[in-house]
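Before relying on records like the one below, remember that each one covers exactly one chain. Contacts with other chains, cofactors or solvent are not represented anywhere in the record.
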Amino acid sequence: MLSKEIVGASTVPIILSILSRGENYGYAIIKEVKEASGGKIDWSEPMLYPVLHRLDKQGLIGSSWKIIENGRKRKYYAITESGRKALHGKKEEWIDLITYMGQLWNLKLSDS
């Protein structure tokens, strides 16, 4: 499992990345993250939905209710243009961090 700090810091870019591929609903996002991370990130609904609501209020994603096969309603989320711009910025930040950490670790490993 990853630390809570790493998971927390990566939550917004992960959500925006998933939604950049198309609209999705909460449970499917949770399932996709768990599968893609090999179980290292295991979000719960009480953790995810406040983040989705915050991103919606910030205008980074939008939401709409849809009726599914069984006649029930399900809330779907989609990234907005502002969300795409924010995702681009988040990607740059993570790439910079990963690059820097790689440099540190390579220097550290060569010194030992």
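Strands lie at 24-25, 61-67, 73-79.
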